[in-house]
Design goal:
134 residues, alpha+beta, 4-stranded mixed β-sheet
Length: 134
């Protein structure tokens, strides 16, 4: 599927289709890299201690704000990398993601369970790569 400056290839020949993500996203334009975001509010306070859905919503709001600062939106995101301290939190991440991302053109994604993040109360960190049309 092609939308403006991005092409989404969900099933490349010889590769099993992904569930909930796109296998390949290609594009042309200005590259934007958003550092891993965690569930801190604008004052640096953790949102949703012990609550994966609340943390996921805050993380995606932070990603949205970072993308906007670079003149991008979730429509420009080509790749998300998700780090969770428990793979069970992935359901909350996907739910929050689907509130921000067009589910017919999901970005390429990687999800990794890690033993810990930089603070024990931070349950997830997500980074984004985007390509903005010029």
């Amino acid at each position: 599927m092609t939308t403006s400056h991005l092409t989404f290839i969900t099933e490349p020949p010889g590769v099993a289709p992904g569930t909930g993500y796109t296998q390949v996203v290609a594009g042309s334009g200005r590259f934007v890299q958003v550092s891993g975001q965690v569930a801190f509010d604008e004052n640096g306070e953790l949102v949703g201690a012990g609550d994966p859905p609340a943390q996921a919503r805050q993380v995606f709001e932070n990603l949205r704000r970072c993308l906007a600062a670079a003149g991008a939106t979730f429509d420009d995101v080509v790749k998300l990398t998700v780090f969770v301290t428990d793979i069970a939190h992935l359901a909350a991440v996907r739910e929050a993601r689907d509130e921000h991302v067009d589910t017919s053109r999901r970005p390429a994604s990687s999800a990794v369970q890690v033993s810990a993040l930089f603070r024990p109360d931070v349950l997830m960190e997500i980074e984004a790569f985007a390509v903005v049309a010029q």
